[in-house]
Specification:
This protein has 16 helices and twelve strands. 52% of the residues are buried. It has a seven-stranded mixed β-sheet, sandwiched between helices. It has a five-stranded mixed β-sheet with strand order 8-9-12-11-10. The protein is α/β, with parallel strands linked by helices. The model has no long low-confidence stretch (mean pLDDT 96). The structure holds pyridoxal-5'-phosphate. Pyridoxal-5'-phosphate (PLP) binds next to α4 and α5.
Length: 396
């Protein structure tokens, strides 16, 4: 076990050192343990592993040293007692809910959600007898009014995808606590560097590690963070028995991603802010949404609960879908993609991609228009990005 004491150090130092399990060879870089299973010195030791008396590894669907390093580093970064890694962000979201809910329970969620999260809450859970209510996440009254005696969980993301609404995590956590329900926060858009939902009262935090944590376009992954008790009561057995395990290769890639997370997010936040300003001054742009901008409807709340405005900017061009497509097609540095959080700048047309499965009325209910584009800031030179948008917007 590593001699590194994470509590003594700040997040940037934890990102590089926390959780290292060094083998007998004393390697500097974390080792990638590509193994399905483990061998034991004796049948007695094997038995002890299965009873839990010996805390070593048994099978990589349950745990693996490289995956364990990633989990520990994430827990130390997030300030969580425990973490469990999953094969994707959606596996983390699904396990965080299915692991704690049963038929007859009820879940309340913010309406403005990533499409797949909405599918899990609106379609999948009800198939197993778990009712759900979607609310305007910005209205505390709506959260209160949706509570039923059988409400067991609240679910939200903040900032939301793609409209970048800010939900008051502390206030919603208090409502959940009062109702005897847990609060799960999908913290993908904020990143662990900019927002700490557990400190604001959330029960559980989930990430698509695919996004900023890898952040270099390589691997899918997810992670669930919570108290030791929540993980052991609701998540541990669910993951072990259903099997959405993170591969050691992906965990190793995520560990390398974490080392540079803070540097990348700092640069992405700076780029996002500069591009937001440049877009806002362009006549072809109708509206710019960026959480720390003075005209964001919840700028004050964003500044209270986030350490930076985030790495995403959502803007609407005049002229609807055709104009938005013309702009996206003309961009040269910024590439068209449905992904986000990458070191390469990306642009997405949400209504034809991430939110395509909704009808126009539902999209309007979520504030998603046909002229809307979501920009995920990379780590390129900010001037190059601003100039790329300036030349592309001449096509709007
Ligand atoms: C907010 C949010 N949550 C969850 C996910 C799912 O993550 P993954 O693609 O790693 O399954 C995504 C993106 O895909 C996302 O944007």
């Amino acid at each position: 076990m590593s001699a590194f004491q994470p509590d003594a150090y700040r997040p940037e130092t934890r990102l590089v050192h926390a959780g290292i399990l060094r083998s007998q060879f004393g390697e500097n870089c974390e080792a990638m343990f590509v193994t399905q299973g483990y061998v034991y010195d004796s049948a007695e030791q094997c038995e002890a592993r299965f009873t839990g008396a010996d805390p070593g590894f048994q099978y990589s669907r349950f745990s693996n040293p490289t995956v364990a390093m990633f989990e520990r580093r994430m827990a130390e970064l997030e300030g969580a007692e425990a973490a469990r890694a999953t094969a994707s962000g959606m596996a983390a979201v699904t396990a965080s809910l299915m692991g704690q809910l049963k038929a007859g329970d009820h879940v309340v969620a913010a309406r403005a959600l990533f499409g797949s999260c909405r599918y899990v809450i609106e379609e999948l859970l009800p198939r197993f007898g778990v009712a759900s209510t979607l609310v305007d996440g910005t209205s505390l009254e709506d959260w209160r009014a949706a509570v039923r005696p059988e409400t067991k969980a609240f679910f939200l993301e903040s900032p939301t995808n793609p409209t970048l609404e800010i939900l008051d995590i502390e206030a919603i956590a208090a409502i959940a606590r009062g109702a005897g329900a847990s609060l799960v926060v999908d913290n993908v858009f904020a990143t662990p560097m900019l927002q700490s939902p557990l400190a604001l009262g959330a029960t559980c935090v989930v990430y698509s590690a695919t996004k900023h944590i890898d952040g270099q376009g390589r691997c899918l992954g997810g992670v669930i963070l919570a108290s030791e008790k929540f993980i052991s009561d609701h998540i541990h057995t669910f993951l072990r028995q259903t099997g959405p395990a993170l591969s050691p290769f992906n965990a190793w890639t995520m560990l390398k991603g974490l080392e540079t997370l803070s540097l990348r997010v700092d640069k992405q936040v700076a780029n996002a802010g500069l591009v937001a300003d440049a877009l806002a001054s362009h006549p072809a742009v109708e509206r710019v949404l960026y959480p720390f901008r003075h005209n964001h409807p919840q700028a004050e709340l964003a500044r209270r609960q986030m350490k930076g405005g985030g790495t995403l900017v959502t803007f609407t061009v005049r002229g609807g879908k055709a104009a938005a497509f013309r702009v996206a097609n003309r961009l040269r540095v910024v590439r068209i993609s449905n992904n986000l959080g990458d070191s390469k700048s990306l642009v997405t047309h949400p209504s034809t991609t991430t939110h395509q499965r909704f009808n126009e009325d539902q999209r309007q209910g979520m504030g998603i228009s046909q002229g809307m584009l979501r920009f995920s800031a990379g780590i390129e030179d900010a001037e190059d990005l601003a100039e790329d948008f300036a030349q592309a917007l001449t096509a709007a």
